[in-house]
Amino acid sequence: MVHQLSETEVLLKRLAVLEAEGASLQAELAHLRTENARLQAELAHLQAENAELRRRLGLNSQNSHKPPSSDGYRKKRIHPALPNEKTPLGGQAGHTGKTLRAVETPDHVRLHVPACCAVCGRAISADEPHDVVSTRQGVDLPEPRRAVTEHRLGPITCGGQIPCSAYPPDVTAGVPDGPGVRTPVTQVAVDHPMARRRWGRGEPHDGGTDRSTGG
What we know:
Layout: H1 2-57, H2 179-191
């Protein structure tokens, strides 16, 4: 009987130890769950911050309100368009093509004949009888040429007086540029501005001439 009581006491003690270990494990598990929830929240915050930083790095003057000067000197990437395999290259079906057409009365005609005979070596003249076997037409702009107009004042005696006329309003100097010169020059200056490099004092000069100062 005494032996059975001692064995029962041992079992009760072991049970108490196991219950204490179980309670400790339960507390540790609750702590781990809390730590896991904290880490999950911190991970979500870091991921959101990383996405925001990446978005800021990708901002430029084209996809935000930032000025073009903030883009820096980085070369802009050009994404090539993906080829469309269904659409063939070149002119599409039904497209009306436009090209230069030969004219019936050209402004100039140039005859090209062989310089000499390939058999005997005799020089050949363009005045000799020949046949035209092929023609081609080249289109070009004529070389610009200045047209000079001299304005003369011619006084005429009438009624005892010699009235004198005046030059046209656009002729204000000895040899002025006419409207045919000023108009294209003004158009080039306004519609097609070209950057000019101005040389200041103390700046390096590469040997060019500064037209703005006449030097």
